[in-house]
């Protein structure tokens, strides 16, 4: 009987925090779009490199492949962490608590920085080996 009472009370609580839940969903979808974009950059870089045949240097070819694979890994990690953060924030909204997610943001920022470094190295090798 208590479960029935809680299920009837639950919708009222959800409506109370509707704006926060919608904002949480928008943030989640923005992170998913970001993950898809990162994966797309990796595919684009690798496919353009081998389609146009910019360089025959094996180091540059390996870097292009690694860049594509690393972009996919970063995209997957971003999507995975965003799903974890979404569910965590959903729970926190229901509990009326706010805990900032510093560690995951710093981790993803470090991965993005490394990806940008790899892109810089790739372009530098292309520039100086042509």
Label the overall shape: elongated
Distance between the termini: 76 Å
What is the oligomer described by this structure? single chain
Low-confidence stretches: none
Largest sheet: none
Written as H for each helix and E for each strand, in order along the chain, the element string is: HHHH
List the helices and strands and how they pair.
Blueprint: H1 2-16, H2 18-52, H3 58-95, H4 102-129
Helix pairs in contact: 2-3, 3-4
Overall description:
The chain has 130 residues and is mainly alpha-helical. It contains 4 helices and no strands. The longest helix has 38 residues, at 58-95. It is elongated. The model has no long low-confidence stretch (mean pLDDT 85).
In brief, what are we looking at here?
By secondary structure, the protein is mainly α. It has helices at 2-16, 18-52, 58-95, 102-129. 89% of the residues lie in helices and 0% in strands.
Distinctive features:
mainly alpha; 89% helix; elongated
